[in-house]
Amino acid sequence: FVAYRGQTELLGPLRKIELYEMGWNLKDGLRECLVAAAPYGGPIALLKGHYRRSPSARPQLEIYSSSGLPLASFPWKSGVVKQLGWTVSDDLLCVQEDGTVLVYDLWGGFKRHFSMGNEVSQSQVLETKIFHSPYGTGVAILTGALRFTLATNIDDIKLRRLPEVPGLQEAPSCWAVLTQDRQSKVLVANGSQLFILDNTACTPVTPPGLSPQASSIVHMCVSFSYKYLALLTDSGHVWMGTSNLKEKLSEVDTKIKTPPKQMAWCRRPKSQQPSAVVMWDGLLIVVGECKETIQYHLDDDSVLVPELDGVRIISGTHHELLQEVPGACEEIFKIASMAPGALLLEAHKEYEKESQKADEYLREIKEQSLLSEAVRQCVEAAGHEHEPETQKTLLRAASFGKCFLSNFPPEQFVSMCRDLRVLNAVRDYTVGIPLTHTQFKQMTVQVLIDRLVYRKLYPLAIEVCRYLKTPEYQGVSRVLKHWACYKVQQKEESDEVIAKAVSVKLADAAGISYSEIATKAYESGRTELAIKLLEFEPRSGEQVPLLLKMKKSPLALSKAIESGDTDLVYTVVMYLKNELNRGDFFMMLRNQPVALSLYKQFCKHQEQDTLKDLFNQDDDHEELGNFYVKASYKDQRLEARVALLQSAVDEYYKAKNDFSAKTTEDEMRLLRFQRKLEEEKDEQLVGFSLQDTMTTLLSVGLHKHAEQLYKDFRVPDKRFWWLKLKALAEKEDWEELEKFGKTKKSPIGYLPFVEVCIKHHNKYEAKKYVSKVTPEQKVKAHLAVGDMEGAAEAAIERRNESEISTVLSRCSATTDHLLMERLNRAKATAVKK
Amino acid sequence: MAHTEWKDAPGLPDFSLLKRLARDQLIFLLEQQHEVDKLYKVELKPIVSSSDQLCFLIRPRIQTVKWISDLVNADKVAGRFRRYKIIFTPQKFYACETVLEEQGVYGDVTTDEWNFYILPLDDDILSLELPEFFRDNFLEGDQRWVTTAGSALRLLQSVYGSFSKVYGIGRCAKMVYESWRELMEDGEQRTRQPEFAKVFLVDRDVDFVTPLCSQVVYEGLVDDLFRIKCGSVEFGPDVTSSDKSIKVMLNSQDKVFSEIRNEHFSNVFGFLSQKAKNLQTAYDKRRGMDIQQMKAFVADELKGLKQEHRLLSLHIGASESMMKKKTKQDFQELLKTEHSLLEGFEIRECITYIEEHINRQVSMIDSLRLLCLLSITENGLLSKDYRSLKAQYLQSYGIEHLLTFANLRQLGLLEEQQAGETLTVMESKVGKLVNDKTVGKLTDAFSSLAKKSNFRALSKRLALVPKSGEEYDLRVPRDMAYVFSGAYIPLSCKLIEQVLERDGWTGMEEVTRMLNGQEFAVTARSKTDAQRIVLVMFLGGCTFSEISALRFLGKERGTYYVKQME
Q1: Per-residue pLDDT reduced to its tens digit, A72-119
Q2: In the 8-state DSSP scheme, what is residue B301?
Q3: pLDDT tens across B114-156, in order?
Q4: Which of chain B's termini has less CB crowding within 10 Å, N or C?
Q5: How many other CB atoms are there within 10 angstroms of residue A386's CB atom?
Q6: pLDDT tens, residue by residue, A245-287
Q7: Which intervals hold domain Vps16 N-terminal (chain A) (predicted)?
């Protein structure tokens, strides 16, 4: 058994490569099967026996790899399937008669279903086409009412019902979906008439130069890129042109008038020649630019799978690729080719044989200075070859040629070697993804890795990532994450085993999100495993949402606090608040001071009463007291304020804070006093501090009442004296001031008296108090009233050097000449001492 | 900052880049809102605008969000239909969304975030402009701004290059560092820019003493008297000697200000008068000029002179009004008391002075400031003093200050000595008898009993208070103490100086123990000593005196200090 055949047949400008001998064992081949094969070497789905509509024999749905290895198989139990198709991400779509579309994964697992709308389910599905566009995979349906319904992207379904086709009495002879101008359109043929349907209109069109003998278009196909269109008429002509119907490329007569089974484009990107493949039972015709067609026979029922750069032909036993011969290959392998690549290959062959001819060939190339072109050709051709031996030969030749070139950039050669190694690995029979190099480049490594992961080929995927040096974050780590997500769904293994296996494998991979894996575990009903996995998550913030989802709120709360992210803590706290009853909620907060203080902050603004409850629960009487005090200031009514203060007093006593309690009681007394006075004297007082109250009273002359406060509230003497002094001076009531000064010995001394009088520009009154000032302050007092002599006298008497200096500095040389002399003398003596 | 000593000192990076960055982001956000009709300050009052779209740019504060909710609800009641958008800066908080939800307006408003972190106030000052940082973090125990600070550091790093070394002290500093490190690990570091600076993170509660002292450097005084907000100040009519107030930007663009901002106040007047004379001479030049010269003079110099003239008269006005307020007896005595407290002598007299200060209702804030300074330098007040001073304060300013005192106690700013505190006395006695090591252990044991400021011991160890009696020439400052008239070197700045000198905390074990530990020093991968830019980040705000002290330090060491504050 040859796993990878790779035999190449050259058919004029085309070549046919045998990809696989199919590994499946189908009794009746593909006859009576509904077949769908995904592009880019994707999987193949078969629905067997669906034409027999007997309830006893259910059809069987089977999924195979491109090499025919079974992936899934199960009896079809749902409704009648009209069409199978694959999405861009390798999911299988089964369109039922009633317009329901069922989505299965590669392994036959049911994923979801969606409907194509009421209109479709009422009038039933007549025909369906599944198509791909830059927007994803789409489904187009022709209903029994001869109307088209279309969804451009099945992952974001927006159903569009296209306008009616005029004169359509029965099912159109053929139709196709086009993507033009970022819009999906339907091209319909009704007999010889052709229409384009878009969202708003149905426009009749005529393909330029379509031969007039045709009375009906029986088949049509659009190229992989949607750029080209081929039409087959009942007269057996194939018209080929651009899909915008502006240009005709060629028209060829097949001379066969029966309707074909399938038709597909077979064209390389950037190729100049149009070529389409038409398939009848047992016959395949390739039509191109020239009038001649290439025909060959098919032994078996086959299916055509259009690809980016060719057509795959799948039969019951074989899998082949039909494509235009790539330029580089043609140049090199054409018989008697003198292209530089061909010469280089020849040179290398001679070199292997140790023949001097090698030199001749090389010289020939070098003379035309085409050596770098030759190397490039060989490398490119190697990329297009499927047979590893041929690849090697070409690459060796390229490498040989490279030796004779200085500064030839190595990148192309190196990356081709890498790509080929990867391609050969995925083309392997066991993997079964027969990608061409062109397809691989179009698809990108990322997508290839995704596909491998999807097929659960984790080790290969990791190998590919490592080999291609894909950044770990997008490569190995991603594969490992998928592996872990798959692993946690394996029900037969115990939590411990899985958790261990996952942690060992993922240990040193960068950028792994354990929370994602844990979410998967939780979704498959394994909460315990999820918690275990979350333990590995280094960012505690990431753990929180899942923990909440799993109702592990205490753990979520502590993790949120650990993360140091206040916002996350808030999130959990608010969640808990709604989830738990109040008592439990408070209890939980109590054990988490950080969360508690945050919640308190929130309550301060939003829920005052809750705040009180919180303090109550903690028996925090001090805070409760503060709370009531604060509340009392927000209330305008006196009674309410006093009541609140009383509550505060009670709390302060409970907190054994006698000081605060007493002060608060005083405040209550003060409030009552203020209220009483306000009523009696009509003076705005309520809410003033004790000091302000007294100031106000004194300023309006209510000395008695001020006096009463002074006694009742044990106001310190000093304070009262200062107050009264200021108040009297303010009113310039000098008589009262003098009386007051004489009531008893001033606790603040008499200097303030002097100063206060001076402040109000009453030197006369000020002088009255100078004599009473203590000796230490005498100088200052004299200076304050501007009595230089007195100041000098006092300073000299006290023999204080610094005081003498102060006085000196205030003397002016012109007026106080004598005084200064005296002072200077005194200073001298004071210094001597 | 010009310095001739170090020719090879690195230039400061261009921080205006940050400004541009922030502006572009904001414009981008606002342009989504189409045309902006008018700008309002968010307050709780009805909005009189006929516009049917309102956009709010706010800090994520619950109170503000509530106001907005009320506005929306009021509109609803009035049957007005408007569209509302709230842009939170620097980030959206879940709690704010909860408020919107609870007020029933969640569906009516759309929200957005503007990740604006740092405002460059000057060539060497960056600010997060988060006045609530201190209260939230140190009083309420809400660490929501930690990540903001971390993000700000990351922003700086991504724009200007990585940091070669990170030092820090304090719990919050540690958390900020952690948060920033996590952010750095999460994000991919693609650009490998050269290293940009060393970073020093310091919690405000490491040094409460410095902000409690009256400022005497010009810029500090301007702040104390007129309040500098976002790098600008509003001078009232008494300064401008007209009937209008003038808003002035205070930064190094202001040629006059930049020369006096760091000067001790006693030097400022002399400088200003000299400047005035120079200006006069410059003006006088035009006498005897011919037409050609005059033309050149008008074209080149006159505008500059006019500008300088304007600024000079403003600053002279400001210093005059300072003189009026600050050279009075009161202020001198206030300073004297502060100095005594810092030095720790004549405490009784100080208490008497504070008492009088309270009784005479000199200033509500100053009284509290003195009380706190007393408490911190003395490791709490004696029970008797505490009660009597508190009672007097309440008598002066009302009982609502019970709450103020409760908050101050929680912060450790104003405390009553507990019975256990008498141990301190014992501790110091024991300290004289046994060797240093044992003292260390004892101190540990004692510190665990109560959180103490240990200011006295710290001051001794770090020589924060110069020996009294020595003359200090304020014109030629010899150390950072000049910012407090030579009486005290700011603890925070001293720590920074010491740590940078030692390149770490080694040899300062005792100091850090007294500061309750939590210090760290982390070296980045590569080692380049060429970096002499130091980024100091004060978590919870810093004073202009500290900035001046650090500028002085920078001049001495040929280092640039970039300050960042909350």
Answers
A1: 999 888 888 889 999 988 899 999 999 999 999 988 889 999 999 888
A2: I
A3: 888 888 888 788 888 888 888 888 887 777 788 888 888 888 8
A4: N
A5: 22
A6: 888 888 888 888 888 999 999 888 777 777 889 999 889 888 8
A7: 15-414
Q: Cα distance from B359 to chain A (closest Cα, Å)?
A: 5
- Asked whether the beta carbons of residue B94 and residue A570 sit closer than 8 angstroms, the reply is yes
Which tens digits make up the pLDDT trace of A814-833? 667 777 777 777 777 776 65
d(CA A403, CA A411): 15
What pLDDT score was predicted for residue B434? 46
Give the amino acid at A188.
Answer: V
Distances from the Cα of B11 to the Cα of B7, B556, B560, angstroms = 10, 16, 8
| Residue ranges of B 374-433 with Cβ closer than 8 A to chain A | 387, 390-392, 394-400, 402-403, 406
Instruction: Kindly tell me if the per-residue pLDDT of B470 is higher than 70.
Output: no
A357 to chain B, closest Cα gap in Å? 53
Residue of A nearest to B361 (CA): A691
- Closest Cα to residue A36, out of A101, A90, A98? A90
| A466: enclosing H helix or E strand | helix A458-467
β-strand pairing of A283-287 with A125-133:
unpaired
- Can you say how many angstroms the Cα of residue A431 is from the centroid of all Cα atoms in its chain? 32
Q: Which residues of A touch B146 (CB under 8 A)?
A: 564, 566
Q: Residue B232 and residue B215: Cα distance in Å, rounded?
A: 18
Paired tokens of B58: 């706010």
- Tell me: ipTM over 0.90: no
Record the tokens describing residue A558, joined without a space: 């502590």
Q: Which residues pair with A296 in a beta bridge?
A: A284
The beta-carbon neighbor of A718 closest among B66, B359, B391 is B359
Question: Which has the closest alpha carbon to B383: B427, B348, B418?
Answer: B418
Residue of chain A nearest B97, judged by CA positions: A571
C-beta neighbour count of A623 within 10 angstroms: 19
Task: Catalogue the E-assigned strands of B214-359.
Answer: 232-235, 246-249
Cα A575 to Cα A561, A563, A571, B91, B115, distances in angstroms = 14, 17, 6, 21, 26
Contact A697, A708 (CB under 8 A): no
CA distance A138 to B72: 44
- Residue A791's Cβ-side half-sphere holds a number of Cα atoms within 13 Å equal to 23
Phi, psi of A711 (to 5 degrees): -80, -50
Whether the ω angle into residue B90 lies within 30 degrees of 0, i.e. cis, is yes
What dihedral do alpha carbons B199, B204, B206, B212 form, nearest 10°? Answer: 130
Model-level pTM? Answer: 0.65
Q: Which of B184, B182, B18, B188 is nearest to B115 (CA)?
A: B18
Choose between B111 and B445: higher pLDDT.
B111
**CA–CA distance from A699 to each of A702, A703, A706, A712, A726 (Å)?**
8, 9, 10, 20, 9
3-class SS letters over B446-482: HHHHCCCCCHHHHHHHHCCCCCCCCCCCCCCCCCHHH
- Given a contact cutoff of 8 angstroms between Cβ atoms, the answer to whether A773 and A781 are in contact is yes
B/e letters for A212-249, b = 16+ CB within 10 Å, e = fewer, are: eebebbbbbbbbbebebbbbbbbbbbbbbbbbebeeeb
Residue with tokens 């908050």: B407
Chain B interface, mutation test: which of A540, A562, A663, most B Cβ atoms within 10 Å? A663
Write out pLDDT tens, residues A563-604: 777 778 888 888 888 888 888 888 888 888 778 878 887 887
